[in-house]
Design goal:
Strand order of the largest sheet of chain B: 2-1-5-7-6
Radius of gyration of chain B: 23 Å
Structural class of chain A: mainly alpha
Strand content of chain A: under 5%
Largest interface: A-B, 68 and 49 residues
Oligomer: heterodimer
Radius of gyration of chain A: 21 Å
Structural class of chain B: alpha/beta
Order of helices and strands of chain B: HHHEHEEEEEE
Helix content of chain B: 25-40%
Number of strands of chain B: 7
Number of helices of chain A: 18
Distance between the termini of chain B: 79 Å
Number of helices of chain B: 4
Strand content of chain B: 15-25%
Shape of chain A: globular
Shape of chain B: elongated
């Protein structure tokens, strides 16, 4: 019964966010892709509601947490249902490619699910803090500020964004206790839930035919499922972060080379802004990703749209993330917690003597469970494609990949002792959104070399 | 140069899958599919013992009673405290050590979970004992 209630708590997330499925950029997509958008919306609105209720001292309950997200979704549905949906071509891959892509992606997902079921991929962070916060928050019926202030809780990084503990606590409210053995399975859910929406975004414009989009999606799913298992990400924040950052970048990459908006208009950015809000609420690295993706998009768009529409479009892109951060910081400020994220040492107190060790250790830990092939294959394809194509359209993805790797080097340079152990523990997990972005960039770049033009 | 990239992507996806498949084939299927007793069965031998110990203690400590964990190894003691915070969400859980350094907060706790033959603090009444652990209750006069 508890497992059924746990499944019901997860199934309720896209119900809470059903309004996202009525946006004109989403409404014409197939059901599974729309479910991905609704899941993102449910996750973000549930988290924001939980933080606001905690800020104002209203105890959590299932109805109290569900009310505001449902009201927002209903309002969005009423507002958006009249707008004409973005037209889509029907998905018509060749049969052989469809079966092979399904087999490759499916086997990757099965590998991850088996690893999670057999406790071969459980995240220690889930057991030491993500899941602990969830169990305690559910017990307190609030984000427990006293616990976050407790000096013996600093191992649980109290400043970390709240979404993962909040969403896990939501499930605990349904089940009555933290289902420790089952929660890691949600890692596979995030990876699998991203795939249908990713496929639709890849085939929308940048990728020139359905076969190619299916093949890139299959590669993405198998590479990331293997990596999530190998990096012991079960139950932690890695999979939702990957979901949000991947779909944000994919939504930006699918924007047409020639603007469809009237001259001087900024593009609508509902889907990528929603995804970046989810990333920001999930992990501190989500805020770094917001900056990297925004910078790459701005540089790309200045040439494509002109400076002012590019700036306005970028502001739309970051608006959801900034609002999400503000919500979390408001809770911190009103509950006697340090506002913001705790820095890892003094910003410019760097230990340059470890740079060679870091530069050796980083690539060694980009194995991704495939002897590094998950990186080498898309990087090779990208290099071949870039020899005859412009890099500019790919900047939202490339800036994320390069930014994350540079951010990791910068972070490790703060260690005053050998960072090798920390590199070994963190690089396989934290580098995953960069791997995802490299695959997307290579997928879009190679689509131009693969033949058929879009209809 | 024209690249048949759809085929390259698909074949590459299958090649990726071969790497974990080879690793899986090197172990018995039955062993790999055995359902675990703890979430750490296949990733941490010490973590598995710690988790199993804390689960064994559940049900033997009264609801909402405060507790602490003692272990011979300070690192294990810290890890047990961190795990216990999640496994006992309706109990006040106090550390006996934190990041390997002893702290005296544990003396606040009514119940002491004694991991794997650790020396129990004085003034305890042992209420349960089994191979791998014990539970002690502080006598009221010694409570702070």
């Amino acid at each position: 019964m508890k497992h059924l209630l746990f499944a019901a708590s997860l199934a309720a997330l896209p119900v809470l966010g059903f309004g996202a499925a009525s946006h004109r950029s989403v409404r014409s997509l197939p059901l599974l892709a729309r479910l991905g958008a609704a899941l993102a919306m449910g996750y973000v609105s549930l988290t924001a509601t939980a933080v606001l209720l905690s800020t104002f001292g209203v105890p959590w309950s299932i109805p109290a947490l569900a009310l505001l997200p449902l009201a927002i979704s209903a309002a969005l549905w009423r507002t958006w249902r009249r707008a004409a949906p973005v037209p889509r071509r029907p998905f018509r891959p060749s049969a052989s490619v469809a079966w092979l892509a399904l087999a490759a992606g499916g086997l990757g997902a099965v590998h991850l699910i088996v690893a999670l079921l057999t406790a071969a991929a459980t995240s220690i962070d889930f057991l030491l803090f993500w899941g602990v916060k969830a169990a305690r928050f559910a017990q307190a019926r609030s984000i427990d500020a006293a616990l976050l202030r407790w000096p013996y809780f600093v191992h649980a990084v109290p400043d970390y964004p709240p979404a993962v503990p909040v969403v896990q606590a939501w499930s605990v409210l349904w089940t009555g206790e933290q289902p420790w053995r089952v929660v890691p399975l949600t890692t596979a859910l995030w990876a699998v839930a991203a795939a249908p929406l990713l496929l639709e975004l890849l085939r929308a414009r940048s990728v020139s035919n359905d076969d190619h989009a299916a093949a890139v999606t299959a590669f993405w799913l198998s590479a990331l499922c293997i990596s999530l298992a190998r990096s012991l990400s079960g139950g932690s924040a890695e999979a939702p972060l990957l979901f949000f950052e991947t779909l944000a970048v994919a939504a930006l990459l699918q924007e047409p080379a020639e603007p469809v908006e009237p001259a001087g208009e900024a593009p609508s950015r509902f889907l990528p802004a929603l995804m970046l809000a989810g990333a920001v609420l999930t992990k501190v690295e989500g805020s770094a990703a917001l900056l990297f993706v925004a910078a790459g998009t701005l540089v790309r768009d200045v040439g494509r749209l002109g400076p002012w529409p590019a700036v306005r479009g970028t502001l739309r892109l970051v608006s959801g993330g900034i609002a999400a951060l503000a919500t979390w910081f408001l809770f911190q400020a009103t509950h006697g917690l340090p506002v913001g994220f705790r820095a890892h040492g003094e910003l410019w107190s760097l230990h340059a003597r470890f740079l060679p060790e870091i530069l050796r250790g980083l690539p060694r830990n980009l194995d991704a469970g495939t002897l590094g092939l998950s990186w080498l294959i898309p990087l090779t394809l990208l290099a071949l494609a870039m020899s005859r194509a412009s890099v500019r359209p790919l900047l939202p993805a490339l800036s994320l990949a390069a930014g994350i790797l540079a951010f990791l080097v910068f972070d490790y340079l703060h260690d005053d002792r050998s960072p090798s152990e920390r590199i070994r523990w963190t690089t396989p997990r934290v580098s995953q959104p960069a791997l995802s972005a490299v695959i997307l960039a290579a997928g879009v770049a190679t689509s131009r070399m693969s033949g058929r033009a879009p209809d | 140069m024209r690249i048949p990239s759809t085929r390259v992507w698909l074949l590459s996806a299958l090649v990726l899958l071969a790497v974990p498949a080879v690793a899986r084939l090197s172990h018995g299927v039955g062993e790999q599919l055995r359902l675990p007793a703890t979430p750490l069965d296949r990733t941490s031998a010490s973590g598995t013992r710690q988790w199993a110990f804390l689960q064994e203690c559940r049900g033997r400590v009264p609801p909402r009673a405060s507790l602490t964990v003692v272990a011979a190894d300070p690192e294990a003691e810290s890890a047990l405290f961190m795990l216990a915070l999640g496994l006992y969400p309706d109990h006040p859980v106090w550390p006996s050590s934190y990041f390997g350094s002893p702290v005296d907060s544990g003396s606040h706790a009514q119940y002491v979970l004694i991991f794997d033959g650790a020396t129990p603090p004085p003034g305890l009444e042992i209420v349960a004992q089994w191979d791998g652990g014990a539970i002690g209750r502080r006598r009221r006069s010694l409570m702070p």
